[in-house]
Amino acid sequence: MGWVESIQTAIDYMEEHLLENITIDSISKQANASVFHFQRTFTILTDISVGEYLRRRRLTLAAQELANTDHKIIDIAYKYGYETPEAFSKAFRRQHGIKPSDVRKNVGKLKSYNRLVIQVSLKGAEPMKYKIVEKESFQVVGVKREYSCTNDENLKSIPKFWHDVHIDGTDDLLFQLNNGEIKGVLGICANHKNEASTQTIDYWIATAYNGDTSKGLQTLEIPASKWGVFEVHGPMPDAMQKTWKMIFSEWFPSHQFKHAGTPELEVYSNEDPSSPDLYSEIWIPLK
């Protein structure tokens, strides 16, 4: 099953179990993917998180039920996963811009988020520049933080991590230390852990480095792999996000490769991140 088909299978599962307390772990299993890789791919392809998709769909169906039945608001709130009418009303107003009681009075307009259907258009109009390379294992040094994948915490917190290493000078140190074949500072997702109560990842900001360091940095061994190395041209973060989307929506569906499941790399230079001529790379392990 390809990436796109697996995402659609997971979407179908979410739709079939919208009224249940489903977990990101159970959803990702439908796609035969780790929690992190499923979340990442889903967000890249749809521009929203898994949690946001579930919220939008539940509140869309709740609005339809309010408009078409005389069921009590409190019962509808419980049905769609809200413990109190107040919590339901707050979420409802945030999505629709009106109160649940306004629906019964035919006041205001509702927003309908329909069931997602993933479709891929292999136009090939905009070429992707990439190469396939074989690379032995190599060492990186840097700093890491562990993030929970629950409630999309990792997606929200990783940008702050980059902000912190820029403020405290760690990124400057990493650029100075860089002496490996891959030039620049790397963003690395590694060590995906699936436990009964939570799913976590280690996110590294690091650089390829041969040698010992006593500068308070940690080391990580990147395993030998076949890599797809994709060029990224343009300012951050838009260019990086656009390339990720093209990789998963166009490149993977038209090639025989699959993601190997080992750490993937984003490679950043120390040039102006807002420059239209900025060059970066995405390294994806392939099998």
From TrEMBL:
InterPro entries: AraC_E-bd, GyrI-like, Homeodomain-like_sf, HTH_AraC, HTH_AraC-typ_CS, MarA-like, Reg_factor_effector_dom_sf, Tscrpt_reg_AraC-type_HTH. SMART domains: AraC_E_bind, HTH_ARAC. Residues 8-106 form the HTH araC/xylS-type domain. Keywords: DNA-binding, Transcription, Transcription regulation. It comes from the Bacteria. PANTHER family: RIGHT ORIGIN-BINDING PROTEIN (PTHR47504). This is AraC family transcriptional regulator. The lineage of its organism: Bacteria, Bacillati, Bacillota, Bacilli, Bacillales.
